[in-house]
């Protein structure tokens, strides 16, 4: 899994993420830049290249928007302190075999 951490000087640019997405052993990407424009640009480019890498949002501030833009899951800090609110919605996405 590739991690985008919320420190701007360490962000992967969109082109790098798209190149990494082509690697067979990289099956997921946690995008936690907290930058909606970078997230949207990344999702659009991954869609254009038909990438199969799953994208998980790490952006606590715009989780719903991340799903609307194509995220397939979330790894967010708030779920550690509000588990009944974040995880108790009954939604289960089919598991992918790796």
In short:
The protein is an alpha/beta fold and 98 residues long. Helix content is 32%, strand content 13%.
Number of helices: 4
What are the secondary-structure elements, in order, as H or E? EHEHEHEH
Note the main sheet.
4 strands, parallel
Oligomeric state, counting identical vs distinct chains: single chain
Q: How are the strands of the biggest sheet laid out side by side?
A: 1-2-3-4
Distance between the termini: 12 Å
- List unreliable stretches of 5+ residues: none
What share of residues is helical?
A: 25-40%
Average pLDDT across residues? 84
Alpha-beta classification: alpha/beta
What overall form do the CA principal axes indicate?
Answer: globular
Report the sheet-strand fraction. Answer: 5-15%
Give the tally of β-strands: 4
Radius of gyration: 13 Å
Question: What is the secondary structure topology, with strand pairs?
Answer:
Blueprint lengths: L1 E3 L9 H8 L6 E4 L4 H13 L5 E4 L5 H6 L4 E2 L8 H4 L12
Parallel strand pairs: 1-2, 2-3, 3-4
Helix pairs in contact: 1-2
């Amino acid at each position: 899994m590739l991690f985008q951490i919320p420190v701007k000087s360490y962000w992967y640019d969109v082109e790098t993420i798209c190149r990494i997405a082509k690697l067979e052993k990289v099956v997921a990407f946690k995008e936690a830049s907290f930058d909606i424009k970078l997230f949207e640009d990344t999702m659009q480019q991954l869609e254009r290249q038909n990438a199969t890498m799953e994208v998980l949002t790490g952006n606590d501030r715009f989780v719903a928007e991340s799903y609307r833009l194509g995220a397939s899951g979330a790894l967010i800090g708030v779920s550690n302190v509000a588990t009944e609110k974040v995880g108790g919605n009954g939604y289960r996405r089919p598991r992918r075999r790796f």
